[in-house]
């Protein structure tokens, strides 16, 4: 099961997300309210739920970029301010608007976990070195028949 990092500075929102994820069988690798904390959990995370505005300002998109590019973590933005994502939207598999429903969080994380697992399997050297690209958003994915 995917290990999910929650990057959210509002503790009650973070705990709600943690409860939703754990009751659906996902492991929560950590809760981070700022960039330093998020990076501390990066090496043990597969998926990250990232808010835009955090304790240290509107740093969520920059944190998401680091998590995706340096650690290969699948990103889901969870925010009340989707317009602030801007140029970073391509980093995310999905954007979930606040206030959110539990089923929206679960389906987004399931989708991201599937993508992360496919990416891990396809980059394994056990099959002769076949690589498959990780598509970071739905619009960039090719539909295969």
Class of secondary structure makeup: alpha/beta
What is the end-to-end distance? 27 Å
Strand order of the largest sheet: 2-1-3-4-5
Question: What is the share of helical residues?
Answer: 25-40%
CATH class: Alpha Beta
CATH homologous superfamily (4th level) name: Response regulator
Oligomeric state: single chain
What is the topology?
Elements: E1 3-7, H1 11-23, E2 27-32, H2 35-41, E3 47-50, H3 60-71, E4 74-79, E5 92-97, H4 102-122
Parallel strand pairs: 1-2, 1-3, 3-4, 4-5
Characterization of this structure:
The protein has 145 residues and is of the alpha/beta class. It contains 4 helices and 5 strands; from the N terminus they run E-H-E-H-E-H-E-E-H. The chain has a 5-stranded parallel beta sheet with strand order 2-1-3-4-5, sandwiched between helices. Strand 1, helix 1 (11-23) and strand 2 form a beta-alpha-beta unit. Residues 122-145 have low confidence and may be disordered.
